[in-house]
């Protein structure tokens, strides 16, 4: 599983390179599936995932985390982010990263 040093480990202690590439390769697994698996084999560990509020519809995020909350017995949290750059936007079929206000309107929903 990725750790807090994944970007630095992958890019030779150069965070700027990792950020410039959108953290590509830093996280390979889909986080909700990993949390569901971890919830099944742990009892006391708090579980959290980062999922972009910019590119995932609010209903989808709410449904995913409500399910994870049930599966984990209330041990899940969501790290709300609005994404980082154009490279991340391209992962979702969008050419350019949304402007600041457009990105922050969605989490308010």
UniProtKB/TrEMBL annotation:
Domain Luciferase-like: residue ranges: 23-109
PANTHER family noted in UniProt: ALKANESULFONATE MONOOXYGENASE-RELATED, C2H2 FINGER DOMAIN TRANSCRIPTION FACTOR (EUROFUNG)-RELATED
Protein name: Dibenzothiophene sulfone monooxygenase
Keyword Aminoacyl-tRNA synthetase listed: no
Domain of life: Bacteria
Originating organism: Gordonia terrae
GO molecular function: monooxygenase activity; oxidoreductase activity, acting on paired donors, with incorporation or reduction of molecular oxygen
UniProt keyword DNA damage present: no
Keywords noted in UniProt: Flavoprotein, FMN, Monooxygenase, Oxidoreductase
